[in-house]
Design goal:
The complex is a heterodimer of chains A (378) and B (396). Chain A has 378 residues and is an alpha/beta fold. Chain A folds into 2 domains: 215 residues, P-loop containing nucleotide triphosphate hydrolases (Rossmann fold); 61 residues, CBS-domain (Roll). Helices cover 38% and strands 21% of the residues of chain A. Chain A contains 19 helices and 14 strands. Chain A is globular, with a radius of gyration of 22 Å. The C terminus of chain A is likely disordered. Chain B is mainly alpha-helical and 396 residues long. Chain B has 2 domains: 176 residues, no CATH class; 211 residues, Orthogonal Bundle (MetI-like fold), CATH 1.10.3720. Chain B contains 17 helices and 3 strands. Chain B has a 3-stranded antiparallel beta sheet with strand order 2-1-3. The chains are: A alpha/beta (378), B mainly alpha (396).
Chain lengths: 378, 396
Amino acid sequence: MTDQVRIALLNVSKRFGDDTAVDGLSLAIAPGELCVLVGTSGCGKSTTLRMINRLIEHSDGQIHIDGQPIREINEQALRRRIGYAIQSTGLFPHWTVARNIGLVPRLLKWPNERIQKRTRELMQLLGLKEAEFAGKYPHQLSGGQAQRVGVARALAADPDILLMDEPFGALDPITREALQNELIRLQARLKKTIVFVTHDMEEAMKLADRIVVMDGGKVVQQGSPQDLLMAPENAFVESLLGGRDRGLKQAGLIPVRDVMHPTGARRQTTAAAVSADDNLRGALSLMLLNRLSSLTVVDERDRTVGTLGVDDIMHRKNLLPAASAKPTNSSANQPASKPAPRSDDGDAPEAKAKVQGVSTDRAEKMSPHQGSEPHHEE
Amino acid sequence: MSASSSVSQPHSASPNRVLLALMPAALAALTLLDIASVQPNRIAPGQGLNLWAIMGPAGVLLAMLPLGVCSLAWRATTLRLRWALCLVVLAMIALPLGLAAFCRVFIDPGAPYARVGLAAGFWVLLFVFMLALIEFKASLRLPHGSWWGLGALMLGAWGLSLASGMLDKLALMQEYLGRSDKFIEALLYHSLLVASAVGLSLLMGFALALAMRRWPRLERGINGVLSLIQTIPSLALFGLLLAPLAWLADRYEWLAALGVQGIGAAPALIALVGYSLLPMTRNTFVALGDVDKGVIESARGMGMSPSQIFLQVRLPLALPVMIEGVRITSIQAIGLAAVAALIGAGGLGTFVFQGLGQAAMDLVLLGALPIIAMAVIVDGLLTALAGALRQGVRHD
C-alpha cells in the first residue's frame, strides 16, 4: 500500500495552439489521498484535472492510473471508473434526482435492483431523504442539495478516484462550509483518492492532505497545509496563503484540545468558553472579542474540560500539531517523501526537496496528522 | 386547489382592468351594432337588425350580462372571477342557441333562399368573449384539465347546434350545405398539405441543423439561402416555380406521372417547405446548441458515449425549443397553404378566392374560419406539448 501510486502524472504538458496551459507537470497521488490543486484562474489546475479523465487529452508526457497509461484505456470506460463533480453540478435537468444518481451504474449496465439499492445508499450517505428527494427534478433543489446530488452521482459506481472541479465554488459560505465538512466526513469513511481543484486557499487548507500550488501551468510548491504555512516557497504562495494572516491561518490548523490545560491542572472559570474541537484561531478571536487572556474549554456537551490562556498559545512547545501524532493515514504523504520511481524527472520532487530543505525530516514528522481532518472525525 | 390559487393571488382584490375594458366593448357591440341580418338570397344585401329590433325590451336583460361581468371584475377576488368566468362561458354556450332561435323566428319557411347573415355586432361580441377567456386563463389558476373541460363544453354547444341542423339557415351553413363534400375534401387536403410540408421541413431542417453543427462553416451559407427564400413574396415564389416545374414535367415523364406540374400541389409543397425551412432549421440549430455546457460536460465526464449524450441529453433538452420551431412553421404553413389555392393547389383557400370572386362573403368565411380554427388548435396543442416537455418528463 505504501509504495502505491494511484494517479501519476509524468512530465505532462498541454498546449492549446501556441498557449501552454500545463507545462511539464509531474505529480504522484497515493491511494486515499485528498490532493488539492490551488492557483489563480488560468493556472492550469482545471486543465490538469480534466486531463486525468481524458476530457482534455494531454499533449506530452504520460498519465498513469494504477500503473496503466490512460491512453490505453477506452476513454468512456476510464471515465466510468472515475467520479466527476463540477461547480455547476451538471445534473440533467430532465431527469429526477434518483435517475441522475444512477447514471453511471446504468451506463455500466448494473441490474435495476442494484442501481436502486445503490441510489438509496448514496442518498442516505449524503443526507438526502429518499422519500423527499428521489422524485424531484434538479430545478426544485437548492444549490447545496444539488451539489450533494452531484457528489452522490460522482460516487455512484463506487469509483476509487474522485475528481472535483471547484464543486463548492458557487455556494454561499454557510452551505459551502457544511459541504466541506461533509466531504471530510465522507473521506474519513470512504478513503477515496480525490483530486480537488479550487482557487480558495482556505478551502484547500481545510480539506487537503496535500496542497499543490500551481502557477503558469507549473507546480510552484506542494506539501501539507503545515508545510506551506511554515515555509512558503515564494511571495506568490505567501500571498495565496493570506500574507499577514498566515499566523492566524496556521493557528487555524491547531485544535484547542492539543494546547489546552486539562481541568485539574489549573482550575479557573472565565466568562467565555471555547469548544475543545475548535482551533486556536477561533480561540484567539474569542479572546480578542471578550478582552480575555484565558478561556474555559468545554466539550460538545458543554462540560468544562480545561482552560486555555494566551501564554499557552504563545509558548506552546509543539509548534505543529504533528506532535500529537496519531498514525492514522500514514500513507497520505508518501509520494512526497518517497517519490514514485518514474516521477524523478519532474519538477515536483524538486519543489518538495526545497520545502524539505528548510527542516530536513519534517515531512515524516508531520505526515500522520494533516489538515483539520482528524478532529472532524470525532 | 382553491386554497392554493387564492393564496397565490395576493392582489386579487384589486380590479381586473382587462375585463373592465373588454366588457364595455361587449356592451357597445350589443347595443350599437347590428347583431345579425336577414338576406332574401345569397347575393342580395341583407337587412341588419340590432338587439332592440330582435328582442325588443327583453334585449335590455341581455345587455346586463357585460355589466354583470364588470361588477364582478371590479373587486377581482378569485371567487368573483370564477363567477364572471361562469357568466362568459354560459354566454358562449347560449350564443348558438340564441342564433338558432333567431333563425326560427326571422326566416320565413316559405322562402327557400332566405338566410341569416352574421353582422358586425356578433363578431365583435365573439371576439371580446374570446379575449375575456384568455384573460381568465391568465389570471385564474385553475387546474389544467378544467380549461380543456370548459373549452370542450363551449365547442360542444356550437358543434351540436351546427350538427343538429338548428343553424342551417345561417348563410355560412347554407354555403357549407351547398358544398359539404368539397368542404371536407378541402379541409383534409389543406391539412395534408400542411402536414407534409411541416414533416418534410422538419426532416430537412434537422439534417441541415446537424450539418451546421458538424461543419460550422456551412452556417452562414445555409442561413443566407434560407433567409433569401423567406424574403420572396409567396405569390412571386409560386410564379417562379411555375416555369421550371412545367419544363421538368414536360421533359421527364416520371415526374409528370407523379403529378408534378407547373401549377397544383408540387409547387405549393415546394414553396411551403422552402418557407418552413428557415424557422425550422434555425430553431433546431439554436436548440441543440443552447443546451447547458455544464450538463454536456458532466455527461462526458460520467462516461457517456457521443451518441448517448445526443440521444439521452442533448436531444431531449432541445426538444421544447425544437417544438417551438414546429409550431411557428405549422401556423405559417396553414396560412400560406391558403394562398397556394391561387395556383390550383386546392385546400380551404379555394373557398376564400371563390367567395371573393363571387362577392359572397359567407363563402370567404367558410374558407377563412376553418383556417383560423386550425391555426389556433395547432398552436394550442404544440404549446401544451412544449410546456409538458419543458417541465421535465421522465424518460423511463
